[in-house]
Design brief:
Distance between the termini of chain B: 48 Å
Radius of gyration of chain B: 27 Å
Structural class of chain B: mainly alpha
Distance between the termini of chain A: 15 Å
Radius of gyration of chain A: 24 Å
Largest interface: A-B, 43 and 38 residues
Structural class of chain A: mainly alpha
Strand content of chain B: under 5%
Order of helices and strands of chain A: HHHHHHHHHHHH
Shape of chain B: elongated
Number of strands of chain A: 0
Oligomer: heterodimer
Amino acid sequence: MSHYLVKRVLMMLLTLWIIVTLTFSLMHSIPGDPFASESDQLPEQILANLRAKYNLDEPLPVQYVLYLKNLVMLDLGPSIKSDTRGVNDMIADGFSASATLGAQAIVIAIFFGITFGIIAALNRNKWLDYTAMAMAVLGIAIPSFIMAPLLINFFAIKFPIFPVATWGTWMHTVLPSLALAFGPLAIITRYMRASMIEVMNQNYIRTAEAKGVPTFTLVVKHGIRNAILPVVTFLGPLIASLITGTFVVEKIFAVPGIGKYFVDGIFNRDYPVILGTTIFYSSILIVTIFLIDLAYTLIDPRIKLTNKEG
Amino acid sequence: MAMEQRIDPLFRPLAKQSEAHDISMRPSLTNVQQVVRKLVKNKLAMLGLAIILLLVVMAIIGPHLVPYSASDQSLLTKNKPVSAEHWFGTDDLGRDMFARTWAGARISLTIGVVAALIDLIVGVTVGGIAGYMAGRGKRGERIDTIIMRVIEVLYGLPYLLVVILLMVVMEPGMLTIIIALSATGWTGMARLVRGQILQLKNQEFILASQVLGAKFSRILFKHLIPNTIGVIIVNLTFTIPSAIFAESFLSFLGLGVQAPDASWGTMTNDAMGVILTGDWWRLFFPGLMISLTMFAFNVFGDGLQDALDPRLRE
């Protein structure tokens, strides 16, 4: 077990290092530098000072080592477009908004996804099943960047229930969380339904039924625990899609989150910001996938971490 | 012989029959026919297929149905709602939304199909090699391990983040989007194919076939490929919409197709500024097309998956 954990952590660090190296070399393979657009207007000396300030005058390997050194100290460097604030400040700034949205969306997606999936599976080929599946199909068909303006249109303009375009109270978080959760919710519903149908057809369920186990116990104790594993497998990609979903949703709802800084960074070609937020997102994703793998063993005792293949 | 005396008189050996009788393999055509028959019965899947065909046809002829081109600007007729002249209305530069929508369809569908095909070719080759090599001596194990490590690392990378990074660095355009999408996209297919091959390799009917002296090419073409092809095709029908989604997502962020070219993503993004003014057609048509595409490919893929699943056969 501990041997496995050490190996996994090393593997995670390796992945992270590859991401850092890849993003760093990608960012620096672009011709010119972030001040290229200002080079006609600014005097030589100021440009040289700017470059020196951001270490851009050093040779690339030196810049890389400097960046790695800072990274180990958890310093993601300065932002080129903002004089006073570094990438760390931006992430610290945006984290609470992004985390609130992300956490609410995950909870909504998992809770309702699993519930709807079970209801659909237990009422297979009845109207409840068809309703749940129709919703799931809509959720898969409508991307978050179309869902978001639709929600704004209906629940903020036509029926002004929720406030938009500002940020502050919990009411402001409802629509963006829903827009984010809708897609993952639909996918979890489908996975849960398919897996629940398969489990409920198993012999051990029939045996339990024959023994006279009440339906509730049958579903909760025997059904869900066995059916939930494929859903857990899906949580990794789900977190990834939630993270990328936050970019557009935060942009549309004007949420002051990390995603907004990332998108602004792309528009401004602010390379340290793009680099820093990418590394931040990647670390969250890698750690989450690791935690999900650990969660497998809790849900399914048949899976041992030490096994090479699942 | 002594053996013959021990045989029960009730059981007499059967006269030797022709060789052909021993090889009892169902012609593979029947399998395809069965799948097609089941697929045709699935109304939702057929609806999906119809929508896909309609979108493809409109992508080809759509821009020619109206006397405007996708980039013709006319400031006199800007922000016009749906009318007889402009079937899908016009945008804030007076460009005809109908022409733009179908010009966008060309770009979106091409990107989806090409990216999915590249994923297919690379993924099946790499996954097939890894699956075949696994358990084939030390060298084979090592090749499999190396491939799997590479895939593991690529899979651990946040897919859209990498695509965004590549798009930031490279010249924006269709080719770039396809390259960026395929750079990490093939790993899913490779994992799938490797898993399938590994699972099949150790199944009884393959072992039986080996024991009976079948050559590798026969096992490959009669057992491995027919048993994997369904999963591959199903995966393909899900890769195309996700590539189309990624393209609109990128274009929405301003990283994809560049002006004056239209794509559903850029059109949605352009419409974002006017959702408060009530110009509903600006968001509605590109949004509808993206959603229809997602819907059509997904239900068709689902239907195909069901039709190919032998466990669901009656």
